[in-house]
């Protein structure tokens, strides 16, 4: 089967060249010549119509799949291998039996190929450094994604004993074991501790009861647990709850969020995950004072004991802390909320979404802003994150997507296809609002690890605004389904009416993003519930645009009073990019947007809702509470 697929792959070899030509010559015709997406063909049926077959990119020269593919190809064809490729008799036996599907043997070869294709000193740490170690912006994303899919195939999605995986002459001769592979793969994990006597496990402090939570009693020895950390830590995940991460400067946002959760009668535990020990004992005492006024159960998860301190100090900043919270909390099912995200329904209702139950990951859309475009380079880079022809030949054609065809393919997964099309076909940069994400950690650990590793790459950080898009890009290239809320986000606030001769215009301006259901009931708000959440924004605004703000608001005190007022829920606009687009204003440090809807215009497809009395009263009571 592998040999037959290798013969077929020669027909695919020009695909990447064709893709590059399309990128250069057809940018003006919907970036890279992308056409209409079609359903992908699952399975490896050689009798399917050739036009329906997925086309894949070639593996790069440093790819472990390229090396392994070349070895098997040479042995099967009984041709001479390159002089610099040395194959032992033991390895030769494993290579010749690849098609027999012995996963243990396959994974021994896959892991050894990771070392051989680079060097014995390989580490993902090298890819995270801003240096010239790797020529071309495509190499690091390609290597990191291939290594993660190998780890997923051999460890996360298998029952193989990691000790057995490294019981191979290649590893014994070079003193390589499972721990060595893990620290190279995940350099953010702590390495300088007694791994044979201490468990790699976070410290969890119960704020509500002002005490440390005991670590679970494990049957495995510390070494057995530590060298297979992700798979073993995943088995400990249990229960449902809320997870957030914040800097100590954001505790005020959390206290406001806590009051809202209390009003909503939340019964789920809340975990604050800290990566750098920023939540000190003094902060815990302050938290205890706030929490004891509620019935909420709050914990602080300290990850400094399980993270590499030098790596954390250098790399785990700002948005990257969100992945630490996602990966190291102790829950199985998680509602992740930014500190300034405000739910307006019972949070337990989020777990009831059928699409979430089916996929295990549910995200909400970002503002629809067609004029904000992803760069050509960034979209081209992601082409190298997808599996190559060699990878698919060796591990099976399970790819959710191939961008290497002028007419691309993707499995139809609810609204996920729309997100894919908007980014890869239309080059729309903003797709997902990650202020609130619902996920099953046990099901999506592999995808979230992929997202985290991709986000750590300098090449990726310049392409996206924070973590947002990685919540769907990671799962996409791990072949993991995800669901996207069907309703576009909108603006809620006071309605400003302008009467013209033939129509009435209604305008709403807001610094928040509002997410609603199909019946236009608000589910949650990103950005807090004051008119402007940005501290001292009135000072910054008058300093940046003095004439503009003096003309409209006279002085800083007037603007400060306006900014500190609770958001007033009178109506909702879901902007239509063609007729009522989001447009940015200078207010609230330029976090504010407006949209204007014309009423009475025939054929108008804009969404404008005036809240009824009960809706307005409920939303405004929560806004007043959050702002107090």
UniProtKB/TrEMBL annotation:
GO terms for biological process: protein O-linked glycosylation. It is found in: Membrane. It is a single-pass type II membrane protein. The keyword Iron-sulfur does not apply. It comes from the Eukaryota. GO terms for cellular component: Golgi apparatus; membrane. GO terms for molecular function: alpha-1,3-mannosyltransferase activity. The keyword Glycoprotein applies. Keywords: Glycoprotein, Glycosyltransferase, Membrane, Signal-anchor, Transferase, Transmembrane, Transmembrane helix. InterPro entries: Alpha_mannosyltransferase, Nucleotide-diphossugar_trans. It holds the Pfam family Mannosyl_trans3. Belongs to the MNN1/MNT family. This is Alpha-1,3-mannosyltransferase.
